[in-house]
Design goal:
This protein has 10 helices and 2 strands, in the order αααααααββααα. The protein is mostly helical.
């Protein structure tokens, strides 16, 4: 598969399943309504795994502009491909969010008197509004995400046989899945752990343009936090990785 198409499809699936679990647990008359944070964290982790399994063989499955930037800063990815990857990821996130709305359209209509709940199925908003602390939370969480992803590829963690390093293939998706679930359960309570502009800004744009009955504004005053925070956190992670390893 063309790597840009792989990033588009992988990110689409990530957001379809990730925003999908938020919709399932939040919207009225959903059979999963009220399932709670643990289900959401598990759902997002598994959503990442599905995206990685699709895109991994062709593109390396970044599925996240912050990951793409971090890998480029660390010298693990060509700068010439960064823009194309980010465009593909952002488009995939938008289409994935739109598909969630189509899938749950009856349930969005049944939740039309709860605009905050509907927005929360598309993108993140802070539990307590404190923009600079919210920003710091996204920086720290994404820095951890990218640092661990880079660490997974080091000699001590890479699979080898007879002294020869081997590609982990689909096995590589499992540690990242556990990482996403761990961050969600431990560090997600303040901002909803966006970690990924394609998971937050693209669905936020979808929320803004889709004809959703009863929707509120799309929270543009906050939208810079889950974009700038992850991108800066990823760059810091790359710098720390180069310093430590």
């Amino acid at each position: 598969m063309n790597p840009y198409i792989a990033e588009f499809i992988g990110t689409l699936v990530l957001v379809l399943l990730g925003d999908g679990v938020c919709a399932a647990c939040s919207l009225n008359h959903s059979k999963a309504k009220g399932a709670g944070w643990v289900v959401i964290a598990l759902g997002w982790g598994l959503a990442v795994m599905m995206g990685v399994l699709i895109a991994g063989p062709s593109s390396g499955a970044h599925l996240n502009p912050a990951v793409t930037l971090g890998l480029a800063v660390a010298g693990k990815f060509a700068w010439a491909m960064v823009l194309g990857y980010i465009v593909a990821q952002m488009l995939g996130g938008f289409v994935g969010a739109a598909l969630v709305w189509i899938f749950y359209k009856d349930h969005y209509k049944a939740t039309s008197d709860e605009p905050d709940t509907m927005l929360g199925t598309f993108c993140t908003m802070p539990a307590i509004k404190n923009l600079w602390r919210n920003f710091l939370c996204e920086v720290i969480a994404t820095c951890l995400l990218v640092f661990v992803i880079l660490a997974l590829a080091t000699d001590g963690n890479a699979f080898s046989m007879g002294g020869t390093a081997l590609a982990t293939g689909s096995l590589g998706s499992w540690p990242v899945t556990c990482l996403i679930m761990s961050i969600g359960m431990s560090l997600g309570g303040t901002t909803g752990y966006a970690l990924n502009p394609a998971r937050d800004l693209s669905p936020r744009c979808a929320h803004a343009v889709l004809p959703i009955t009863g929707k509120r504004d799309s929270g543009w005053w906050y939208s810079w936090v889950p974009v700038a925070g992850p991108m800066i956190g990823a760059a810091l992670a790359a710098g720390l990785f180069l310093l430590v390893f």
